[in-house]
UniProtKB/TrEMBL annotation:
<dbReference type="Pfam" id="PF01063">
    <property type="entry name" value="Aminotran_4"/>
</dbReference>
<dbReference type="InterPro" id="IPR050571">
    <property type="entry name" value="Class-IV_PLP-Dep_Aminotrnsfr"/>
</dbReference>
<dbReference type="InterPro" id="IPR043132">
    <property type="entry name" value="BCAT-like_C"/>
</dbReference>
<dbReference type="GO" id="GO:0008483">
    <property type="term" value="F:transaminase activity"/>
</dbReference>
<dbReference type="InterPro" id="IPR036038">
    <property type="entry name" value="Aminotransferase-like"/>
</dbReference>
<dbReference type="InterPro" id="IPR001544">
    <property type="entry name" value="Aminotrans_IV"/>
</dbReference>
<keyword id="KW-0808">Transferase</keyword>
<comment type="similarity">
    <text>Belongs to the class-IV pyridoxal-phosphate-dependent aminotransferase family.</text>
</comment>
<protein>
    <submittedName>
        <fullName>D-amino acid aminotransferase</fullName>
    </submittedName>
</protein>
<keyword id="KW-0032">Aminotransferase</keyword>
<dbReference type="GO" id="GO:0005829">
    <property type="term" value="C:cytosol"/>
</dbReference>
<dbReference type="GO" id="GO:0008652">
    <property type="term" value="P:amino acid biosynthetic process"/>
</dbReference>
<keyword id="KW-0663">Pyridoxal phosphate</keyword>
<dbReference type="InterPro" id="IPR043131">
    <property type="entry name" value="BCAT-like_N"/>
</dbReference>
<dbReference type="GO" id="GO:0046394">
    <property type="term" value="P:carboxylic acid biosynthetic process"/>
</dbReference>
Length: 285
């Protein structure tokens, strides 16, 4: 199945990028990951809006119009053999003929890349037990709201989690829970769902927005506010959310049980609401 690169569809083996591409040299680019269920891209408009916001945030023009992105995504989905997929999009500031941190002047053509892969879902057994996580200091920069490909701090945090036998690293900055290395984090205390606010120190997750919408529409008590590390440790439930993880309970944190040590009722309910919502949206098309 083909990948998309700069206006062309071609086999991955034939998709070449210059070693002077600024994505390679500086991590100077942006990305998106869009889940596809039954060959329909979920929340595609929201993902493309976030792509646009991130591009604006790094002073780049979008190389494709929204409808052109949709065509690319549609073609990749239909050329791929799987019903459930993950579509990856990346745009970088392109390849200059010299190495200089400042933007190429005059600008060079951006690099736009996209490909489909099978959606990796969480097995029911893992969902039933929940996963383990660690906390780590948040060493990222000050614009975590932008979905940029410079992911070294996230990479190191996630590797630390893996080496500790854990599924995720929760990032703590100034005593506050911000998010996970590749997920947003929610906390439940005494039946109230707590969500960290959208600031420049957190990625505005597409799944995060769905969770807030579901909580609000279904009467789940919700507080959007900063969560102290101490509150995280005293939580009844902690969950991670992302386009590929959906809603996944964290039942062990730094080796200690979270609440009962098992996935809790609020998270279970939210997972079910999320499935219902997904199925409704996908049926409507
Ligand atoms: N935060 C970070 C740092 C992430 O990398 C991700 C996954 N892309 C998320 C949150 C969750 O975002 P979404 O729900 O849009 O997948």
């Amino acid at each position: 199945d083909p990948v998309y690169l700069n206006g062309q569809y071609l086999p991955l083996a034939d998709a070449g990028i210059s070693p002077l591409d600024r994505g390679f040299l500086y991590g100077d680019g942006v990305y998106e990951v869009i889940p596809v269920y039954s060959r329909q891209a979920f929340r595609i408009d929201e993902h493309l809006q976030r792509l646009q916001a991130t591009l604006a945030g790094i002073h780049m023009t979008n190389p494709l119009a929204v409808d052109d992105w949709k065509t690319v995504i549609f073609k990749l989905i239909n050329a791929a053999p799987w019903d459930d997929q993950s579509i990856y999009l990346q745009v970088t500031r392109g390849a200059d003929n010299k190495r200089d941190h400042a933007f190429p002047s005059p600008p060079v053509a951006p690099t736009a890349f996209a490909f489909a892969s099978p959606l990796v879902t969480t097995p029911a057994e893992t969902r039933a037990t929940g996963v383990a996580a660690i906390t780590v200091p948040d060493l990222r920069w000050g614009r975590c709201d932008l979905k940029v490909i410079s992911l070294l701090a996230n990479v190191l945090a996630r590797q630390q989690a893996v080496e500790a036998g854990c599924a995720e690293a929760l990032l703590i900055r100034d005593g506050l829970l911000k998010e996970g290395a590749a997920s947003n984090i929610f906390v439940v205390k005494d039946g109230v769902l707590l969500a960290p606010p959208k600031t420049q120190l957190m990625l505005p997750g597409i799944t995060y927005d769905v969770i807030l919408e579901l909580a609000e529409s279904r009467g789940q008590p919700l507080e959007i506010r900063e969560i102290a590390e101490t509150e995280l440790r005293a939580a009844d439930e902690v969950w991670m959310t992302s386009s590929t993880k959906e809603v996944l309970a964290i039942t062990t944190l730094d080796g200690q049980p979270v609440g009962s040590g098992r996935p809790g009722p609020v998270g279970e309910r939210m997972w079910q609401w999320y499935q219902d919502f997904k199925n409704t949206v996908m049926r409507k098309g």
